[in-house]
């Protein structure tokens, strides 16, 4: 059994001092649903003890019954949405993790991935610790429980100084809420205010929904402690160069969020404009692969002057949960999600804009679908560089072997997806379009340049990496 | 208890002679999910008997477990998705309706609304008939069961000649499938072919998903009978002028569908262009209310030359099923679905495009949201005329009293929604944009000009209408 | 599909004019649970309309959640427990059957079996009636709906005069409750009073539980109508000789019930005494097959002077629902229910008392189990005559072919079950032990002497019978 | 939150080396269902890893679906049934407890109660251990995980030497099964063989069901280790005088089980005979409170010569789960379970035999019920001495304050229960009837003579005891 389990693709939300803490956390998680559709949970505090409700499923399903909120009373709460690969015993792996230890109760919600979790877990188990889950996050509470420091803050700093990797963390105790962002600041985290209440969320769109005021992003390496006495900021870690995840801008974050100092929608439009500059083509229409490709396609259209059209319609009732009939003799694949509009595509030279190519199979189906609908030419344009390296900091990517661009040339990929032409945004173009300090981003998935190394028990992950 | 229950907003799908009949019906319903999210069902035939599975819920939930298909074996199947208002005993009101009568088993799926159902039901009950549901559709099977005609076709014609209203019907028996479209042709219905199998669906997008070839639309007043011996077409009803529902083009159908001789997406773009011609305004950007307003906004932008932007981002995990926390002190309303992009709207003169205004409350919230996000001016443009009259032919509209435009002037509505200006597409402009024979559409919701009258038991609906 | 479906082995309960009508019906059904463990339901009336809740499962499971009672408000209620063989679409076959027809709402609960239901159903369907279930009970409501008589009582008499067979019926309308027992009085039914409320139940044990006073048994051919104005008794049917089901005394009814003028427990002890007189044997101990064989074994022990012991212990957590592990390489059969007590049986000559032998397989296992536990001799004694004929009046018996005594001699059966001796109670002894008028019982299962014939559509049941 | 939670009233079962390990464990638990009806679970091993399935509910419900057994594959398994008082977070408190620690996986099922669990838990938490449950059993696995001994046996001995109390334990690892009975031997545990497989169970009735051969009882202080290499017996604890729970014979064990060297049924009959000798009375009939009072009533009848009758009939569909309707204006209490047979009791002088009186409320209702049914005299006889002290070794008894005999004289109790006379079996008579070495039993519930003291964190339990 592989104990290493990255907490990929999660969203976190917390609110302190609001009589509707759990309700608002529910709404906040709802706004962050795109960061994880598999499971979700809320832990609340009424000042005396902690309460928990969590389950597999979408936020609206797990918390859709108003009776549920009786299970999570109180005026503070933290919540978590997660995506993870299926496997055994997943239901015990839902966050927040809530434990009782000698100092009382504490719960934690985590977005990111701890790269040295296996080493620390082995060490703790050798001393007699028993783990309840297979989540890397659990080592944090064990380190807290084992710490002899007298204050919660000291215990946290002692525990967090042991771990390496990407993490945004929200802790809740009977009386306090603590938000921590790792020194590299891989994942986004922001701070807001709603009346007298403080709010912390992975993305600003969650603040918008509950009409909280955006204050600022939590800074890399910052620990914010919120208690009855107010809010304090600490920087207990050694300062390092930031490594914001550039893939949040390209694909993962919601377009209406403001992260790493920019509005995602505008960044994506600029990616499209830059793509048009780098890979112009003579064509009749520009169409996006909806929904994530829409802003880049608009940018490409504006910059190139080619007309923007919706040539592919998305079925919005599709979630990740659609199950094809098992007995079926065929697979419908991308047709379940997308349908071409024949009258738009017929006889046209079409530029198709997508944000990335992973295995290439989906792009291949899309190109064929567009061509079958009557397009005379299909030109694929990708608003990011080739994804050649897996992410170890919290984005779910396949093994390197499955990434088509890690082992194929541009021409090979073009032939595989059967496009008339193919153009990726350049690495330089990407950093230019994102703007700001180019040095402050992690682009390991494009460049293989990993900001943090991987001390592991076994040899396997290294083989993928180096 | 009100026995009158319009079968509003439904979608139907059927396939004859395919070894994966139920699987494909599941996919077909999935493509028609936008026509009804409350409940769905499939009835199949293996040539010997009929099988049924139906339940409240989305198609992907009700049929998501592949084991389910063991319940609906055979090589023919019909299916139904429905929307209806909540109420008691709804679960028995799910279609298709399956009954056994003296001639064997028959099931029916219905999209539309029978306006004389109350009269016929009262008459049947007086003779001793016992009804299982409160759906108007059930009178059809009772009329069939009571008919003494010797052939199924004759019994159907005898039964259908008794009913008035809007209906697209799909029947299945042990050995046959029958599709009927009412003489006015209110609702869309199309015929396709997949290998040796015939397919019937409310919209062409359902044919696309299963890769069936579109043959043609079923014609108003046509009855198509499909059996082991092949397919036959009948026109057993008195011919009348068609009354296609123009609201299918404005809002209800999927943009990638081809109905009433046009592709919906192109019609909607043309509505936007016409709207720009009729209600030009000096502005910086055009934004849609997503998703239905997108094509019209693109058309408006193209015609006006004003830049198209996404100023409102939709949370795609929102279904009709989102339940706000009951204990909440506020209502979040449209914020649950839409979030403005501040950087796009700040300081801009904004044209907002939507497809209709019903009660006005949503439009009011959207205008305020856009203004609070920094817009200097907000100009609302609606890609259809004022909706002043309720629909009795299969679209769920509120009572006339609740329709803001039935009792308020344009200026009153503008003031209520707090827009700087407001423009509706003209009636003439609508018919021009839709194209073809202007006389062939039902526009009662805009004009009050109802193609079929309402013989009712009670006086109530008349009060609303005249 | 076989439309003929006897409503075998059911229990019914009703209460009129009590503010806790549904609660008390729940308790009444609970006391009648032994009459049917598969499904149960309650229909209540608040004077304005009828309410229903029914489901597969035991009474304590279906109604175990107190919230359920909100679904069945009002001050009158009827309920039903049923056993039936598994099959498709069973959930729609749960009683009471509730329908709306031209005169309002009515529900019915039925214990018994209508032998001419197929003929009547065919006739009704030929006129256009559509049936919702495959239960014979449903024809009653259709006959009611089709009746043109002006009063409810007249409609009922008109309907019931059409049907033949065994039936105890409880009807409820918005304002009345009606109890009917067929002219032969096959099944038991009794009337009680609880304060100002009237109660009707299959067995008196249900009155005991709710502390209602037992008034009298409902008489064969009697129709009791209870309404706001009080209670009236009618005898609308032609008088016939009674045919009380003797098997209720032998096995089916609860020992603490008083039916057909006797307490069941005392009858069963007397059956044991008579058995001892008819089939004495030199032995050390008498043991029952628990639980139903206990009173007869006590009677046998008292009459014979042989010591009564518990040599077989029953696991009381066994219901009819125990499912043996599917993958198992063996079948545990009767061991799941019964375990021998070695120290009691070792070296003893044992008389084993059971109430009947059906297929013989269970008796064979019991004899072997007792012998393996050390018994030196095993003498089987049965407190009823050989069961050679199937029941068509409401007891679930196998086909005649499966009844071992219909095709085997006493000696053949003894050898099959491997007993040292075997004795059945004689037919004469049975009637003597039951006491009273010997002519008033139906003993068709022992004698083949069926009080009512079987007009059927198909030839099959006749083959079994004659 | 009270961390102290006795694992009261449980049953355990294990089997090693059988291809149907989980199926047979299911059957074994089924036979032990009387020892705990609230929850159950199975942990199995396939030699490589452990698998778990557990849930609230009866064994037949939790494991009734044969698909379930796919979750617990392998050729060894242990299982647990439990009763416990309701409370929050009960579902996490279901056994067996399965954990992964540095040496691999281990699961444990426990019957009994550890009296120093609070002290040890506090000590472990101070070192940083995090507990998953509130069960005392969990300290055992933490002690195991913390042990540095090199072999599993040594780690177990080290851990078990820390704990005090009553325990029968079954451990399973990937490759071994270990059974341990505490040095006092409070609870029963026996060893059996089925072909080449070893079986361990709380009571012999579980061996009977699966047709395993009874070998012997596991001895007090014995640890039996079963592995691929065979079976070994160890006595690693200091020898002490045994303290078998005499209440197992009086009430708790199944009558067909053989425990502490005797068959329970025969012991109970002897208790009844001894009771007749000590408390004779002139009467007409002897009746039991079913089911547990039956053998003692038979013994009393035999010894006294008074006729044995069933005067109270038990509804066997009653479990501990029966829920009275919440809105009810009355409580039905014991009437739900028992119904008197009037014709048996009318005018009779009745001896009622029960096994114990706890609070007195049930006895009071039974006496009244018997008298209302017509008995002229009611003499209550109890087949054990007054229960005056709570149990701390694994039987669920109320606080001392609630035990009527701890604060009332015999005459006060007689008056409270409204009996004409009342007689308890004497302490001496109890020990005589049970037979064998009188010194080898724990009779603390009758005598207050507790074999093991109670080191606790808080003062509360001591107050009850001394």
Automatic annotation (TrEMBL), chains A, B, C, D:
Catalyzes the formation of phosphoribosylamine from phosphoribosylpyrophosphate (PRPP) and glutamine. This is Amidophosphoribosyltransferase. InterPro entries: GATase_2_dom, Ntn_hydrolases_N, PRTase-like, PRTase_dom, PurF, PurF_N. The gene is purF. Its cofactor is Mg(2+); [4Fe-4S] cluster. The keyword rRNA-binding does not apply. Binds 1 Mg(2+) ion per subunit. The active site is at 10 (nucleophile). GO terms for molecular function: 4 iron, 4 sulfur cluster binding; amidophosphoribosyltransferase activity; magnesium ion binding. NCBIfam families: purF. GO terms for biological process: 'de novo' IMP biosynthetic process; purine nucleobase biosynthetic process. It is an enzyme of class 2 (transferase). [4Fe-4S] cluster binds at residues 245, 391, 442, 445. In the C-terminal section; belongs to the purine/pyrimidine phosphoribosyltransferase family. Gene3D superfamilies: 3.40.50.2020, Glutamine Phosphoribosylpyrophosphate, subunit 1, domain 1. Residues 10-229 form the Glutamine amidotransferase type-2 domain. Its EC number is 2.4.2.14.
């Amino acid at each position: 059994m592989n104990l290493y389990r990255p907490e990929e693709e999660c969203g976190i939300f917390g609110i302190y001092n609001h009589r509707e803490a759990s309700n608002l956390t529910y709404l906040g998680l709802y706004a962050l649903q795109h960061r994880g559709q598999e499971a979700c949970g809320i832990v609340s505090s009424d000042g005396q003890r902690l309460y928990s409700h969590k389950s597999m499923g979408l936020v609206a399903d797990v918390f859709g019954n108003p009776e549920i909120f009786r299970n999570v009373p109180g005026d503070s709460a933290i919540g978590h949405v997660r995506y993870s690969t299926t496997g055994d015993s997943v239901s015990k792996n839902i966050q927040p993790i809530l434990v009782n230890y000698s100092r009382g109760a504490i719960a934690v919600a985590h977005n990111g991935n701890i790269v040295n979790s296996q080493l620390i877990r082995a060490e703790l188990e050798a001393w007699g610790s028993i783990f309840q889950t297979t989540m890397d996050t659990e080592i944090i509470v064990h380190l807290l429980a084992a710490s002899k420091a007298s204050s919660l803050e000291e215990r946290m700093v002692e525990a967090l100084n042991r771990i390496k990797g990407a993490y945004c963390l929200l802790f809740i105790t009977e009386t306090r809420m603590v938000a921590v962002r790792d020194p590299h600041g891989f994942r986004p985290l922001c701070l807001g205010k709603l009346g007298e209440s403080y709010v912390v969320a992975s993305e600003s769109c969650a603040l918008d929904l509950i009409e909280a005021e955006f204050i600022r992003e939590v800074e890399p390496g910052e620990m914010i402690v919120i208690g009855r006495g107010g809010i304090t900021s600490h920087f207990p870690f050694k300062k390092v160069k930031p490594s914001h995840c550039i893939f949040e801008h390209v694909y993962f974050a919601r377009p209406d969020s403001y992260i790493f100092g920019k509005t995602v929608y505008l960044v994506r439009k600029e990616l499209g404009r830059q793509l048009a500059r780098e890979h112009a083509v003579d064509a009749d229409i520009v169409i996006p692969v909806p929904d994530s490709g829409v802003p880049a396609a608009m940018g490409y259209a504006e910059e190139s002057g080619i007309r923007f059209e919706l040539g592919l319609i998305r079925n919005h009732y599709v979630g990740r949960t659609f199950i094809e009939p098992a007995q079926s003799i065929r697979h419908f694949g991308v047709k379940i999600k997308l349908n071409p509009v024949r009258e738009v595509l017929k006889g046209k030279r079409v530029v198709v804009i997508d944000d990335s190519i992973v295995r290439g199979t989906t792009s291949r189906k899309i190109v064929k679908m567009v061509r079958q609908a009557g397009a005379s030419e299909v030109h694929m344009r990708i608003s990011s560089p080739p994804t050649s390296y897996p992410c170890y900091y919290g984005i779910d990517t396949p093994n390197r072997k499955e990434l088509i661009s890690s082992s194929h040339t541009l021409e090979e990929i073009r032939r595989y997806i059967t496009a008339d032409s193919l153009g990726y945004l350049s690495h330089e173009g990407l950093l230019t379009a994102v703007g700001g300090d180019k040095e402050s981003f992690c682009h390991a998935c494009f460049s293989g340049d990993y900001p943090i190394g991987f001390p592991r028990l076994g040899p396997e992950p290294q083989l993928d990496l180096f």
